[in-house]
Write a structure and sequence with these properties.
Rossmann fold, 7-stranded parallel β-sheet, binds nicotinamide-adenine-dinucleotide, SDR family oxidoreductase, NAD(P)-bd_dom_sf, SDR, SDR_fam
């Protein structure tokens, strides 16, 4: 156990699997009180049990990040249990990959809601608390696909580019309240998000990465920890890439 987040209260939005889960586990090991959230109650409760068994502190709040009432509830339950919020990680994201002409308006709305609206709702709900505290750290998870066009992720890339723009504007507007807002940008990471890719597409992406491998979720959790922690106290409005030297 470390102490880089000692006495901090951290919400990790969408943290029952993948990068979010690795981040929640790492934050707890570093002393944070962690709020695990997601749609799958069984996975969330199990993760909280496992964090507690390892000596950490956590709670689960069932949340669909695209539902405004759920995001309000996530913040309210956190404050009720732990009294405040110091860190918000907006980790939710994804989107179906397909030929551009086959996308529907529903796809457009769903992908933008998951990647963009979720960040808007998370930030909007925590800001009043962080502004009152005069401090706070928000980390938004974007994607290397913003700089590296691959097949089939056009709407997803559009939404993730919006997350970077939102991050810069928020960092500028809320610096005077002691609030930092940054992005962490994964490349290709070994999680369920690639389930729908064929081995051929996935291997072609890996071949294109100078390190010739996918990242592991923990290799994203550490950059997120850095940006979330006081160690990054002079960093705001920035994007920290963790992608095996891809898309330079
Ligand atoms: N894995 C990669 O290669 C990669 C690359 C670039 C960016 N990212 C980004 O990293 C973040 C984490 O992705 P991951 O790879 O861990 O994927 P993942 O699919 O393993 O995890 C995504 C999580 O989001 C949750 N989620 C999806 N819709 C939700 C909703 N409406 N409400 C609440 N939770 C919801 C899922 O249940 C899951 O727990 C995402 O923002 C993703 O876009 C991942």
């Amino acid at each position: 156990m470390g102490n880089r987040l000692e006495n901090k209260v951290a919400i990790v939005a969408a943290s029952t699997r993948g990068i979010g889960r690795a981040t929640a586990e790492l934050f707890a090991k570093e002393g944070a009180k962690v709020v695990v959230s997601g749609r799958n109650e069984e996975l969330g409760v199990k993760l909280v049990e496992s964090i507690k068994a390892d000596g950490g502190e956590a709670m689960f709040v069932r949340t669909d990040v695209t539902v405004p009432e759920d995001m309000e509830n996530l913040v309210a339950k956190t404050v009720e249990q732990y009294g405040t919020i110091d860190i918000l990680v907006n980790n939710a994201g994804g989107g179906n990959s397909q030929n551009f002409v086959d996308y529907t308006v529903k796809d457009w709305n769903d992908i933008n809601d998951l990647n963009g609206l979720s960040v808007f709702l998370g930030v909007k709900n925590v800001l009043p608390i962080m502004m009152k505290n005069g401090s706070g750290s928000i980390v938004n998870v974007t994607s290397t696909c913003v700089h590296k066009a691959t097949w089939g992720s056009t709407i997803y890339a559009y939404a993730k580019a919006g997350v970077i723009a939102m991050t810069k504007f928020l960092a500028t507007e809320f610096a005077e309240y002691g609030i930092r807002v940054n992005c962490v940008s994964p490349g290709v990471v070994n999680t369920d998000i690639h389930k729908e890719y064929s081995a051929e597409i996935l291997n072609a992406m890996i071949e294109d990465i100078p390190m010739k491998r996918m990242g592991e979720p923990i290799e994203l959790a550490y950059p997120i920890l850095f940006m979330a922690s006081d160690e990054a106290s002079y960093c705001s409005g920035r994007v920290l890439d963790a992608n095996g030297a891809w898309a330079l």
